[in-house]
């Protein structure tokens, strides 16, 4: 039994259902990222876990105890969770110290104990010199760290984060990403992290949960999700890819629309209907003449961009599709010329959806 | 570890449902009951008490009613146009030119919101009454003319329009000046780059952008003057004509004709609703939202040689609307009679002694006024706070309904509400007529929209995540309200309280129908004293009201415990 379990979780607002039956198990100490496009229900799922919204169906269990179901909801204050909000939600009328100490005060600790715990966490988050400042007097990154400190100081069973880095500039975002991971490794809280930035998810998560339209598309380690996507949506959403489609010949062979055969090294095709295959941009090989026997097709270069470390080609192939391929800089093909593409079988992923 | 989770599963007592029900009931009674009785009575015959349409027929056939409506509407539009014509150039000069002292002028006009309009009317009585008016007396003695010469006469339709416009123009001014602040200067720069001269830019770019604000302000001025009782009663009645508010009031005099009064109030209600909708439509239009957008530094125009003309214009307007009236009130309070020249001999504290120690009615009135002011401000702020919380946080289904109810009284003119409350509570069931309760109910209803608007906009300014952060850290809903929401709202609560207090102690339109000898208020005493011509005492009372208003605003702004709030100009 996992520590945090969502079972058939459903949330509807009137006639619209925004979370459509989510099943998810999170082990104790894991950092799980909910990843998906805007409006897919990530925040709603997180707020369901926090108890801010009541479930319309299904259950949420923590340590085996039901905390949310259609029958009732334990209020947020009864869940021993912490949350970091997109807006940080630092209380502007309290100093950094008071913000961090608030949760401990509610737990009726002695003031010495509070002092000690707050100092500890402020040291870890490098905020000690700022403890007397008000949130309005801090930079974005410092505010972010205060909200981290405030959430962590109460030693929650579960830590929830809703796009905690989206208000930061790119450099700081990178830095805070590792900071969050470092703090997680240090304290090992069970963490649910919402983001729509895939590189953020890749760098921080133990498990990535890709959501789409209120449902989970796929859950797995970052490597699973990237290298072994199960659906076209996941393949496209994580890392970007070429999708080739055609008629299914066998479990791992497709007759593509451009009249060539693709053998897939991994994945399974849908048993019926159109067969789809994903090949990442940088896995495709490109050459001016035919150098391969199988998994190859010729097309015409429509665009070529020199990017210093590599070249970015767009090649249109028979059947009307356009393939994007990244090649070493020494492969030099002018626009309009013929190009042979090779899709190495091991990098062709057959998709069931 | 899971023990804490189980422990958390206590059923917390949710007070929001009972509070919602109680508030809903209270607000419904406050708003719906008076309207119901107005409609009921308007169909009731004043003679026998049976059902009749005669009251509505009288609205079209009774020439005195038709005339009163016609004059009132004419007056209101004249006031609106005059206010707009004066306020727009003022606002532009103060907001967008290098006029010396413009910040001070702006502050002064904003502060003049506190002046009760009826006090302004009395000031103009002192200044421009045909015989005793200071201006006329001075004019005659200057040119050695006899007493039949009259330079200015306030007891005319024109005089009335002028006196009211002096105290409604700040509405237009504030709206237009704020709008001008927000016109992005890049729009103007764009026009200038394309070769538009200063005047062309002003006419083609700036002016169209603030037009909605001008229209909206003008509509407010129209609405204010249409529903005003004090100034017309002071100026129009001696001049021998009625506007609709004074006409409705006269229907309450013996023999009372309540049914006719109720019917006469209904068109006023309808016009008010229409004007408010028009205003909302204008302000809600797409063009206006441009103004809400990015606010670059507004472009300041150099006046150059025009500076002196502009200065003369601004000073003239300020003299007419602020310096002269306030001067007249001060002078009258400290000299024997208004027309006396100011010398050491004529200076006296006679009126102060009379008002404070000899005139028996004042002490009661002062006590009543401040008691009601404090009670109303406190209750309204509390109701507004809870209502705004329930509405903005949508913690309960149907909360939006409360917001509608709390805003609805905006559309009920004071005099109409007075009629409605009289009909609702001055009957054998309630017997509230002649008590302070009926006045308290009236003031609460009148002030609720202002208080609610203040509170709901400040709730909207407190991000819900701030409260949620408190909840997830382990604080209950109430604890969060107390520790987080309340401190963040403190300044707005204080501001709303002041707002309501100042509004209450100057109310006259509804009060005049609901007050009796035992429940006199300062505003009513001022009105009574005006009938008996005791201007010195009136000015003393007026000064007391103003001092109280300014003191409250000042204290709220200065005392740090109260948050040193920024009072908003009253809309
Ligand atoms: N209170 C509500 N009432 C009705 N619909 C809602 C409500 N809250 C959210 N929704 C809808 O639910 C859907 C999911 O919203 P949610 O905030 O969970 O998306 P998200 O995945 O967090 O998106 P983003 O990445 O933009 O934050 C959206 O279509 C949203 O419009
Ligand atoms: Mg979201």
Can you offer a commentary on this structure?
- Chain B: Belongs to the binding-protein-dependent transport system permease family.
- Chain B: It is a multi-pass membrane protein.
- Chain B: Its main location: membrane.
- The complex is a heterodimer of chains A (353) and B (571).
- In chain A, helix 2 runs parallel beside helix 4 and helix 3 (111-124) packs across helix 4 (140-152).
- Chain A has a six-stranded mixed beta sheet with strand order 7-8-9-3-10-11, with helices on both faces. In chain A, strands 14-13-12-16-22-15 form a six-stranded mixed beta sheet. A five-stranded antiparallel beta sheet of chain A has the order 2-1-4-5-6, with helices on one face.
- Chain A has two domains: 4-227, Rossmann fold (3-Layer(aba) Sandwich); 240-351, Nucleic acid-binding proteins (OB fold (Dihydrolipoamide Acetyltransferase, E2P)), CATH 2.40.50.
- Chain A has helices at residues 42-50, 96-106, 111-124, 140-152, 170-187, 198-204, 222-227, 232-237, and strands spanning 4-13, 16-26, 31-35, 57-62, 65-69, 72-73, 81-84, 158-162, 190-195, 207-212, 215-220, 242-250, 253-256, 261-263, 266-267, 275-279, 285-287, 296-306, 311-316, 322-327, 338-342, 349-351.
- Helix content of chain A is 24%, strand content 35%.
- Chain A is elongated and about 75 Å long.
- The longest helix of chain A is centred in the middle third of the chain and has 18 residues, at 170-187.
- Chain A is of the alpha+beta class.
- In chain A, strand 19 and strand 20 form a beta hairpin.
- Chain B folds into two domains: 38-312, MetI-like (MetI-like fold, Orthogonal Bundle), CATH 1.10.3720.10; 351-571, MetI-like fold (Orthogonal Bundle).
- Helices cover 73% and strands 0% of the residues of chain B.
- The longest helix of chain B has 34 residues, at 63-96.
- By secondary structure, chain B is mainly alpha-helical.
- In chain B, helix 6 crosses helix 15 (307-334) and helix 8 packs across helix 10.
- Chain B contains 25 helices and no strands.
- Chain B has helices at residues 2-8, 16-42, 54-61, 63-96, 102-111, 117-128, 134-143, 157-182, 185-193, 198-226, 230-239, 244-252, 258-284, 286-292, 307-334, 350-358, 360-393, 399-407, 414-425, 436-461, 464-472, 477-505, 511-514, 522-531, 535-558.
- The A-B interface holds A 50-52, 62-65, 67, 74-83, 85-87, 89-93, 102-103, 106-107, 150, 154, 157, 160 and B 1-2, 4-10, 12, 463, 465-466, 468-477, 479, 483-484, 487-488.
- Adenosine-5'-triphosphate binds next to strand 2 and helix 1 of chain A.
């Amino acid at each position: 039994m996992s520590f945090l379990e969502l079972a058939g979780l459903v949330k509807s607002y009137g006639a619209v259902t925004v979370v459509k039956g989510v099943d998810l198990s999170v082990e104790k100490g894991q950092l799980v990222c909910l990843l998906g496009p805007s409006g897919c229900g990530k925040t709603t799922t997180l707020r369901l876990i926090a108890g801010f919204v009541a479930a319309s169906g299904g259950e949420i269990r923590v340590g085996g105890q039901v905390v949310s179901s259609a029958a009732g909801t334990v209020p947020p204050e009864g869940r021993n969770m912490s949350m970091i909000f997109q807006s940080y939600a630092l209380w502007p009328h309290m100093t950094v110290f008071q913000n961090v100490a608030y949760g401990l005060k509610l737990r009726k600790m002695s003031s010495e104990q509070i002092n000690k715990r707050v100092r500890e966490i402020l040291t870890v988050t490098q905020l000690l010199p700022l403890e007397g400042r008000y949130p309005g007097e801090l930079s974005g990154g410092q505010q972010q760290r205060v909200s981290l400190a405030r959430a962590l100081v109460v030693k929650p069973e579960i830590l929830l984060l809703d796009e905690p880095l989206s208000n930061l500039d790119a450099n700081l975002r990178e830095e805070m990403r590792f900071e969050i991971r470092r703090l997680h490794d240090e304290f090992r809280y069970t963490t649910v992290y919402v983001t729509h930035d895939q590189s953020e998810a890749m760098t921080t998560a133990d498990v990535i949960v890709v959501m789409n339209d209120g449902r989970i598309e796929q859950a797995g380690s970052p490597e699973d999700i990237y290298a072994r996507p199960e659906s076209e949506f996941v393949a496209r959403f994580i890392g970007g890819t070429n999708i080739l489609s055609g008629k299914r010949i066998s479990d791992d062979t497709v007759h593509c629309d451009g009249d060539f055969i693709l053998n897939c090294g991994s994945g399974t095709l849908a048993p019926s209907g159109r067969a789809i295959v994903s090949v990442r941009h940088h896995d495709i090989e490109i050459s001016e003449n035919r150098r391969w026997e199988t998994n190859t097709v010729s097309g015409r270069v429509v665009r070529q961009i020199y990017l210093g470390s590599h070249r970015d080609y767009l090649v249109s192939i028979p059947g009307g599709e356009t393939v994007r391929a990244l090649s070493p800089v020494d492969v030099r093909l002018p626009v309009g010329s013929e190009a042979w593409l090779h899709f190495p079988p091991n990098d062709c992923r057959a998709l069931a959806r | 570890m899971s023990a804490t989770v189980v422990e958390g599963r206590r059923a917390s007592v949710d007070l929001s449902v009972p509070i919602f029900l109680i508030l809903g009931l209270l607000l419904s009674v406050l708003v719906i009951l008076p309207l119901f009785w107005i409609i009921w009575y308007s169909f009731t015959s004043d003679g026998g008490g049976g059902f009749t349409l005669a009251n509505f027929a009288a609205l079209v056939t009774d020439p005195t009613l038709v005339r009163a409506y016609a004059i009132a509407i004419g007056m209101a539009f004249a006031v609106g146009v005059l206010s707009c014509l004066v306020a727009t150039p003022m606002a532009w000069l103060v907001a967008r030119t290098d006029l010396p002292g413009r910040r001070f002028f702006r502050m002064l006009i904003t502060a003049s919101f506190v002046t009760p309009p009826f006090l302004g009317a009395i000031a103009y009585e002192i200044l421009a009454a045909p015989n005793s008016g200071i201006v006329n007396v001075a004019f005659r003695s200057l040119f050695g003319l006899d007493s039949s010469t009259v330079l200015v006469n306030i007891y005319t339709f024109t005089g009335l329009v002028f006196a009211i416009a002096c105290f409604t123009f700040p509405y237009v001014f504030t709206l237009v000046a704020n709008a001008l602040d927000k016109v992005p200067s890049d729009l103007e720069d764009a026009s200038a780059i394309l070769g538009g001269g200063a005047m062309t830019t002003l006419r083609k770019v700036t002016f169209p952008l603030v037009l909605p604000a001008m229209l909206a302000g003008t509509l407010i001025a129209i609405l204010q003057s249409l529903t005003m009782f004090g100034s017309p009663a002071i100026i129009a009645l001696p001049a021998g004509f009625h506007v609709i508010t004074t006409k409705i009031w006269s229907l309450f005099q013996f023999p009372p004709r309540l049914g006719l009064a109720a019917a006469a109030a209904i068109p006023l209600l309808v016009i008010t609703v229409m004007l408010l909708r028009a205003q909302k439509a204008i302000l809600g239009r797409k063009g206006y939202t441009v103004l809400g957008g990015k606010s670059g530094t507004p472009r300041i125009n150099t006046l150059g040689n025009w500076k002196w003309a502009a200065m003369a214009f601004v000073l003239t307007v300020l003299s007419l609307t602020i310096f002269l009236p306030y001067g007249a009130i001060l002078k009258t309070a400290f000299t024997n009679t208004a027309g006396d020249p100011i010398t050491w001999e004529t200076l006296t504290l006679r009126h102060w002694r009379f008002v404070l120690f000899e005139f028996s009615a004042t002490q009661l009135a002062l006590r009543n006024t401040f008691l009601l002011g404090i009670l109303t401000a406190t209750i309204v702020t509390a109701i507004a706070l809870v209502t705004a919380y329930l509405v903005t946080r949508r913690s309960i289904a149907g909360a939006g309904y409360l917001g509608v109810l709390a805003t609805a009284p905006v559309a009920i003119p004071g005099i109409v509400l007075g009629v409605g409350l009289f009909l609702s509570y001055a009957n054998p069931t309630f017997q509230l007529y002649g008590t302070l309760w009926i006045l308290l109910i009236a003031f609460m209803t009148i002030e609720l929209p202002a208080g609610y608007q203040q509170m709901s906009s400040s709730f909207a300014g407190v991000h819900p995540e701030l409260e949620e952060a408190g909840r997830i850290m382990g604080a209950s809903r109430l604890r969060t309200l107390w520790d987080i929401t309340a401190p963040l709202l403190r300044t707005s609560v204080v501001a709303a309280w002041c707002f309501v207090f100042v509004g209450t102690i100057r109310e006259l339109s509804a009060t005049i129908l609901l007050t009796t000898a035992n429940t006199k208020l300062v505003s009513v005493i001022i009105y009574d004293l005006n009938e008996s011509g005791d201007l010195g005492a009136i000015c003393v009372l007026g000064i007391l009201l103003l001092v109280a208003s300014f003191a409250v605003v000042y204290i709220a702004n200065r005392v740090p415990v109260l948050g040193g709030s920024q009072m908003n100009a009253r809309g």
